[in-house]
Amino acid sequence: MAEKQRFRLATPAEKNRVDVVCIYAHPESDTRYTIGLDAATGFGNDYTSIQIFSNRMPFEQVAWLRDKRITTVKGSEVTYALAKYYNNAFIVPETRFPGNAYVDNLIEVYAYGNIFRRKQVLDEDPTVSTKYGICTTEADKHLLINQTKSLMENPDGPQVIFHDPVTLNEFCNFVYIEDKRKTGGTEGFNDDTVIATMLALHGCALRPQEQRQTVKRYSHDDENIAHQQYLMKNHWERIAGKEKGLVKAI
Fold first, then answer.
1. Lower CB density within 10 Å: C or N end of the chain?
2. Burial 184-217 (b: 16+ CB within 10 A, else e)
3. Which residues span the domain enclosing 74?
């Protein structure tokens, strides 16, 4: 199991870097976490993106990684370490190549089984239903987009909390490209962090946890402050009453 001291909170200088794991919040023992994975080979212009969200409502981004030089072997090791660190997190990978290589490594090398697997429908080939992850066809993308949109536009307020500006920037440039009849980043922009985020949010929505209820502890300081405010309020009311020629009972 990955040791907790291996990961530390990201410093301000690191939060915009795309070659380190940025940790925004350490795991809490009673909280579930989900990892969304959009993989690349590490030898091209595409980025490998790992997004980690807390399953507590609202779903909060707690860590991320975006790197174009990480190989599938090293990336699988990092994914496994992060999954173990975040309480054996539920992994939702994109399984187009090379995402399938990550899944193979996680299962065969690290014996990690907490990975999203599609449910079998009655008329589906049984061999297909055993596949892990989500192959993001345009139909699957639209389902993920609608789910993410409903979370962000929830009537009770947004149910997603972001900490990474790169992810927000990619969401702003994630559009439907009409001439290609597909969704993705506009020219000059990537969509890896968006895909990884939507995969993570899909996993969170499958296994949500209620928002943590905070109980306010009794504090003598709070009582003293409230008493002082009460006395000051009465003091100024007496002064205002005297200036108007009124008599007020204390």
1. C
2. bbeeeebbbbbbbbbbbbbbbbeebeeeeeeeee
3. 4-206
